[in-house]
Amino acid sequence: MSVTSIGKYEFEPLDKQENFHGNQLTYINWEQHLLFCAPVCLPLPPEMPFGAFVQEVLSGVYSKHPDFEKIDWDAAKWTLDGADFTPDLGKSLADNGLGHKSLIRFWTPGLKGIAGSHS
Amino acid sequence: MSRTVSITLQNNDDARPIIEAIKKDNPKATFNLYPAMVKIDCDGRLIVKQETVEELLGREWDVQELHLSIISIAGNVDEEDEYFELSWNI
Amino acid sequence: MAEKRKKKMGIKQRYSMLTRGLGWDTTYQPMDKVFPYDNYEGIIIHDWEGWEDPFRLTMDAYWKFQSEKEKKLYAVIDSFAQNNGHLGITDARYVNAIKLFLTGVSPLEYQAARGFTHVGRQFRGVGPRVACQMQAIDELRHVQTQVHSMSHYNKYFDGLHSAPHMHDRVWYLSVPKSFFDDARTAGPFEFLTSISFAFEYVLTNLLFVPFMSGAAFNGDMATVTFGFSAQSDEARHMTLGLEVIKFMLEQDERNIPIVQRWMDKWFWRGTRMLTLVAMMMDYMLPKRVMSWREAWDIYFTEAGGALFADLARYGIKPPKYADIATKEAEHLSHQAWHIFYNYTHAAAFHTWVPEKEELDWLSEKYPDTFDKYYRPRLEYLDKEEKAGRRFYNDTLPMLCQVCQIPMGFTDMDDPKTISFEVSEYKDDKYHTCSLGCKDIFDYEPEKYVQAWLPVHQIYQGNCGGTEIEDVLKWYNFNMGADNMEYKGSPDQKLWDEWQAHRKKA
To answer: Is the pair A, B in contact (3+ CB pairs within 8 Å)?
Structure first.
């Protein structure tokens, strides 16, 4: 549907990729660890290797959680924009299929959060 | 299905005779006291009568003086010189 | 009182003299050019005289009653200030609810004044025009009385110094701001449906009634008095909300689907905005009147149930997703408080872990959910804070494209898992927090692609700089005073000193 308006109604989206200085927005959520209240949002270079994303970005975001150091990354399950996904750590984010405003969710089996509360 | 109409008034000296009048004219009404206010619920219909408030107050009372004490209402409003009424058409 | 003086005219006559006689059909210019906005939304009006005013307040009566309300209110405000009323509140934590009110809600009163001034010009029918103009004056009164009442707290407590500035910039204040921006950029009938009906009629009770009663319970006579003084106007505004709905529905059956869609949209947007109130009630009032869940049951399930049963005769159904909103009442306050606990370093008020008795109260009020999902987390956070490791989330959150709240809401049938929705529009993705917000986006994507999402704006470099400190400066925060944990804050220090003095005395 479209906006009911008094005239032509067309505007530029505010969050086009070119507004982020060479980065693309990436949304990240560590599932069932709601100590972090919500998924996070970061502007990342599309050429960043996925390995660096896990080692540097995810640890920067989540390492305060006592479960973080217990994560077995080989067992982690991932989805990218709603579909199951197996990342290639050597390839870049872009080559792994991440676009502007992609959502990455990951599950860490066996880890149930603070006192088993999924926090 | 709830048919409750409701009026919430400040619990103060201006409102007290109105609350009393509601009690008199709406025997089915229930009164819920909260800090600083009272929420009055009634099934289907609730009326505030000028005559009853005036009797209790001992002076003329304009139904619109209700505006000074009212906090909230639920129901369709019918306001006349002699009364203020809330109702649902169900 | 048989000899009672009879007024020359009855209330209906007097009101009709005031309103109907003021309108005329223009002849130099066609009416459609004079009133260009009242038909483009698709609402068909055959007879503007069909508008009924339930409260028939004439201008003279309006000024008389409003001035009486003002006199009473300012007497209380003066006495509160003269008697150092701030010393009588239950606990300084309470003032944080006032900070949120002043920065988040009071600017909306001003937005409402602007909105009603605008639509009060745009209707060709005199009935709605007069009602809107009166409401515009009321709303202006509300923002003024709120600023006056709360200014007393600004003398002693942090975070109250820059409300309008913050309202335009701070991330969580974009939630209420965007709500009103959305309403004011719609046509006049949608504006009335959004503000007068969905917000005033269906939802403001939840904001003003139990919360203000809570203010009284916590010793804040200034706030309860402005709250109830505003609310006395609100009763009139609510009837305007119901009247505009009935008017549209009675005029033409082609209006029904339009009205229904607006109700669905604005009910959902309203419940999202009230998230702030949910946590104010469950977490920020040291003495509690009722839980958010209980307030929801009274003011939405029961009162809303009767309302929508009444409207069923027009073919109107209860708002879409009302069932989800009712499930959310179990979770909303806890999830919202957690968002602010995560990001208090970027908020102009403090958060804390509730005291043990307060946690017990929450366990009692939310027996099915609190101990299972929320209490362990709060106890862990408390332990961490006591060990000197107060938890803050250092990464900015993902926001919903429509309600602009951080995506902290879970699937209501699975409170372990965040709820995600996404839409594609012109090659870009737009993420939303719920089906309610997604529907709103999908219906008018052109509108919401323009959303000024604070997190994205920060990353684009439009908010003072790249470091969080730069952004907070741009927000006008006094760092270390306005923000961060309550424990150890200057507010707490001052409050503890006052209490110590009182003991000595």
So the answer is: no
Torsion sign, CA atoms C37, C41, C42, C48: negative
Strands C410-411 and C414-418: antiparallel
Residue C384 lies in a domain: no
Long-range contacts of C259-263 (CB under 8 A, 24+ apart): C259/C43, C259/C193, C259/C316, C260/C316, C260/C317, C261/C443, C262/C189, C262/C190, C262/C193, C262/C194, C262/C198, C263/C193, C263/C197, C263/C198, C263/C316, C263/C319
Whether C294 contacts chain B with CB within 8 A: no
Residue C332 lies in a domain: yes
Give the CA count within 13 Å in the CB-facing half-sphere of C68.
14
Domains of chain B, with CATH numbers? 4-87 (3.90.56.10)
The structure tokens 């009242």 sit at C38
Count of H-run helices and E-run strands, chain C = 24, 4
Which residue in this structure is represented by tokens 């020359």?
C8
- With a cut of 50, list the residues of chain C below it in pLDDT: 1-2
CB C299 within 8 Å of CB C271? no
Mean pLDDT score of chain B, rounded to an integer?
A: 94
Chain B contact set for C61 (CB, 8 A): 64
Please report the ipTM that was assigned to this predicted complex: 0.98
List CB contacts of C97: < 8 A, sequence separation 6 or more. C211, C280, C284, C285
In a domain, C333, yes or no: yes
Q: Which residues of B touch C (CB under 8 A)?
A: 1-6, 8, 10, 34-37, 39, 54, 60, 63-65, 67-81, 88-90
> What is the tens place of the pLDDT at every residue in B23-46?
999 999 999 999 989 999 999 999
Contact flag A4-C442 (C-beta cutoff 8 Å): no
Q: What is the mean pLDDT of residues A84-105?
A: 98
How far is residue B79's CA from residue B86's CA, in Å, rounded to a whole number?
Answer: 9
Mind listing the pLDDT tens digit for each residue in C74-118? 999 999 999 999 999 999 999 999 999 999 999 999 999 999 999
Q: What is the CATH number of the domain that holds C252?
A: 1.10.620.20
* CB contact A41 to C (< 8 Å): yes
A3 touches chain C (CB under 8 A): yes
pLDDT of residue C1: 46
Give pLDDT, residue C5: 60
- Identity of residue C491: D
A69-86 residues labelled b (16+ CB within 10 A) or e (exposed): eebeeeebebbbbeeebe
Total domains present in chain C: 1
C57 CB-near residues (< 8 Å, 6+ apart): B64, B67, C15, C65, C134, C236
